[in-house]
Amino acid sequence: MKTQATLGIIIGNRDFFPDSLVEKARTEILDVFQKLGINAVLLDTNQSKLGGIETFQEAKTCAELFKKHRDEISGILVLLPNFGDEKGVADTLKLADLNVPVLVQAYPDDLAKMNVVNRRDAWCGKISVCNNLYQYGIKYSLTSQHVSAPQDPIFQKDLLNFVAVCRVVKGLKSVRIGAVGARPGAFNTVRYSEKILQRNGITVTTVDLSEILGKANKLTVNDQIVKDHLDSIKAYAPQGKTPNEAMIQIAKLDVVLKQFMEEYDLDATAIQCWTSLQQNYGCNVCTSMSIMSENMLPSACEVDVTGTLSMYAMQLASSSPSALVDWNNNYADDPDKCVLFHCGNWAKSFLPDIEISNAPILGTSVGVENTYGALDGRTPAMPLTYGRISTDDPKGIIKAYIGEGELTNDPLSTFGNRAVAQIPDLQKLMNYVCKNGFEHHVVMNASKTAGILEEALGNYMGWEIYKH
Fold it and tell me: What are the L-fucose isomerase C-terminal domain coordinates in residue numbering (predicted)?
């Protein structure tokens, strides 16, 4: 999942401050980029004074360079080794018109070097630059400390978090989601607005479940592609007590779903499950969904399109798989713990004891023999970022809540995919979820990335965000 990011760099300069600071900053930031595996696009020292930007002509030159690399640049770093020219920075961003996230950095002064030759005043300059960006309507991010040098670990963490913000924003603005089948009749909770999503760059491609099942039924165990998929499924998870006939059904369905995703260049899927698949095809699709999610192609059940969008956003933030879960049960009388559950479609990363099994709850209505393909497994203790993106149709907006907690090793005797979550002030969160009409589905990710998501979804996507 991790790909080498490319950032544009603007080094601000102001003529009555020492030029040597600009020259040194250029060397320092390129060393940091190389260390962190980030590609840089910036002016050469012969294209402007020491590669910095101060005048309008220098802003034009830098903007043209950025435009040439439009498809590569996912964000821009503004570096202020001295006060910097506020208009030079703002004009560069306006002329380039890349519409990508911007991080503003400023160097700290050394108390022992406050003379004319070494004084920076970047503390003040950063305020002026941000003021201009605000006037221009350019969205921007800030470092966790007002001033910090590129060599500082705290800045380098800020920079990596910014790269993740850029990854989320770029990914969400072009994501393509496949909706397989109709929303189950009993699940009004997963309704969503395709039109609101499309206005935000999110495309939904629909297909009738009958088309998928029809193509799957035409395949046989003798088809090489079915054999190949069967082998990959067996390599992914132990078969357990799942009958061979059910494994073949799962493999055939897996073939067709993969073909659908490749045909429409999809990044994620939301699939009708409850209960059409079991009644009309005879197995669960959970194993295929788990494989897709593990391979960074997230898949949500019950045609929960905004659920899989949430999975994709968290995946982009953390570079690790996400899982769709139910806020399902209280955990004894602990107000800050709850049980997360689903029939069995979580990515393998969450299930060290993974096994292909059946879905007992669903089996009570459709027959357990028709529910093989659900996974069984318990998620152990690990970090937790949770959240949910939703379209609020009456308001015409996209909204989300996000937060962090822990998954614990507390005892839990049940079936399916299961975990125990510990979340500070969980009762307040549940109150917010219920009062604001969010779905019963939430997404979990084994990371601490709520701050990245808040910045990407709130600041840059412009969505209504609640960070718990």
Answer: 340-465
**DSSP classification of residue 12:** B
Distance CA 52, CA 45 (A): 8
- Using the CB atoms, write b or e for 217-230: b if 16+ within 10 Å: eebeeeeeebeebb
pLDDT at 1: 41
Nearest to 5 by CA among 38, 33, 31, 36: 38
pLDDT tens digits, one per residue of 193-247: 999 999 999 999 999 999 999 999 999 999 999 999 999 999 999 999 999 999 9
Measured CA to CA, the distance from residue 141 to residue 250 in angstroms comes to 46
Tell me the sheet residues that pair with 355.
376
- Residue 388: closest CA among 266, 292, 306: 306
β-strand pairing of 417-422 with 374-378: parallel
Residue 157 contacts residue 148 (beta carbons within 8 Å): no
In the three-class reduction of DSSP (H, G, I as helix; E, B as strand; rest coil), residue 422 is classed as strand
What is the residue whose two structure tokens read 């799942």? 242
- Rama region for 121: left / alpha / beta (φ>0; ψ in -120 to 50; rest): left
The string of DSSP letters for 261-317 reads: HHHTT-SEEEE--TTHHHHHTSS-SHHHHHHHHHTT--EEETT-HHHHHHHHHHHHH
CA-to-CA distance for 415 and 423, rounded, in angstroms?
Answer: 22
How much is the pTM? 0.96
Q: Is the four-CA dihedral 291, 294, 297, 299 of positive or negative sign?
A: positive
For residue 3, the Cα-to-chain-centroid distance in whole angstroms is 14
Location of structure tokens 């005043």: 121
Residue 59 tokens read as: 């802003």
Contacts of residue 271, defined as CB under 8 A and 6 or more positions apart, other chains included, come to 180, 181, 257, 285, 289, 299, 300, 301, 303
In the predicted structure, residue 18 carries a pLDDT above the cut 80: no
Instruction: Return the C-alpha torsion angle 420, 422, 426, 432, nearest 10.
Output: -70
Amino acid letter, residue 190:
V
Lowest mean pLDDT of 18-32, 55-69, 375-389, name the range: 18-32
- Please name each of the domains of the chain with its CATH number: 6-172 (3.40.50.10940), 176-467 (3.40.275.10)
Q: Tell me if 415 sits within 8 A of 378, measured CB to CB.
A: no
d(CA 345, CA 299): 8
> What confidence tens digit (pLDDT) does each residue in 92-134 have?
999 999 999 999 999 999 888 888 778 889 999 999 999 999 9
